[in-house]
Amino acid sequence: MAKLLQLFPLLVALCLTLDGAALAARPISTFVVEGRIYCDTCRAGFETSASKYIEGAKVKLECRHFDSGAVEHTTEGVTDSTGTYHIEVEHNHEEEICEVVLVKSPMSGCTEVDRDRSRARVLVSGRSGLATDIRYANSLGFLKSQPLPECGLLLQQYALGVDK
């Protein structure tokens, strides 16, 4: 009886370990794709300290089949007051290439799609090795029609186009 009592904590620990391993091996079936949309006020092609995040911008998550290129899944999202969107996606899309794509900006004077920052790939699969159900996409940007006056000085701080 004493030996059985000594083995009891070991058996409990073993059961908890196996249960935890089973949970970790179970693929996630619902994901949240998250990212931010900004207005490139300097037309720099990247985020700067002068960039403004856009509330109410529309994006879509588009998943295309890896082989055929056919669109298998589309979900739209809208940014909040911080320029952040959260798109909930059901099921694994491991046979598909998923991208968040810019759709529309409500910000006056900042509606031109930045061709180089118009889409971001995200992995929407539970078999990716990631422990969380949140998938982060790179920030996407619209271009302001005219750069702000302070952009010249701001971009000099980045030493763009300056050989040292």
Automatic annotation (TrEMBL):
Keywords: Disulfide bond, Signal. InterPro entries: Pollen_Ole_e1_allergen (IPR006041). Residues 1-24 form the signal peptide. Belongs to the Ole e I family. This is Pollen-specific protein C13-like. It comes from Canna indica (Indian-shot).
